[in-house]
Amino acid sequence: MKEYLCSNVKNVKVLVFDFDETLYYSPDVREYYIKYIKSTILNLSSLTEMETDSLMKEVGFTMENKASPSFSSSCGRFGIQKRAWDNYRIDNFFQINYKNAESIDNNILRKLSMHYPMYVVTNEVYKNILIKAERLGIDLSIFKKLLAPSAEALLSGNAKTKKELYQDIIEGEHVMSNQVLVIGDRIKVDVEPMLELGGNGLVVTRPKEIEEFAVNYLL
């Protein structure tokens, strides 16, 4: 866990969570993700398997690099148009081994929701998040809102970025940016957009870290 706090955590009034690999953890999730990205590239590009392996390593999609970039921002490196990727991932979305997954404690989330308005902000398609949450036993009704792109928004190119969604939350809650804490598993994708707005971030590797931070500092 790594904290990126621009103000005292006691000043935080709004909590924003990423979903994938933040509200759940699976020991083989990285292996599943790398296989998923490779399968996507082989399906959507003209690259050979050897070329794909080499370029994935160059871009950072490896087992060792836990901070790999989002595929949306780097698909062009593989000769894949973002629109083609968006169209593909609507029905071919990243899934994990749900049997060995560790999910966030809903009771902790309920306690937090008594003190903070809470949001889930993700780049995954809205309907796919609903499927994952149900399989993982994560109660999304605890959150004030799930902000995820619809299939239509993705295909039309109208899906908002995380930074834009963070700004919407700040304005909608009538708070200062330094009163918002974003919790996610990737610094560049989840946390940096909020830091650029003057907010706070927490990078975690599993739900237990969120639960411990909540008990020690937020509740």
Topology at a glance:
Elements: E1 2-4, E2 14-17, E3 24-25, H1 29-44, H2 49-59, H3 71-74, H4 82-91, E4 102-103, H5 106-113, E5 118-121, H6 126-136, E6 145-147, H7 151-156, H8 162-173, E7 180-184, H9 187-196, E8 200-203, H10 207-218
Parallel strand pairs: 2-5, 2-7, 5-6, 7-8
Antiparallel strand pairs: 1-8, 3-4
Helix pairs in contact: 8-9
In short:
The protein is an alpha/beta fold and 219 residues long. The chain has ten helices and eight strands.
CATH topology heading of the largest domain: Rossmann fold
Output the helix-strand order. EEEHHHHEHEHEHHEHEH
Number of E-state strands = 8
CATH homologous superfamily of the largest domain, by name? HAD superfamily/HAD-like
- Shape, please? globular
Number of domains: 2
CATH class of the largest domain: Alpha Beta
- Return the structural class: alpha/beta
Spatial ordering of strands, largest sheet: 1-8-7-2-5-6
Radius of gyration equals 17 Å
Keywords: Hydrolase
GO molecular function: hydrolase activity
Protein name: HAD family hydrolase
Pfam families: Hydrolase
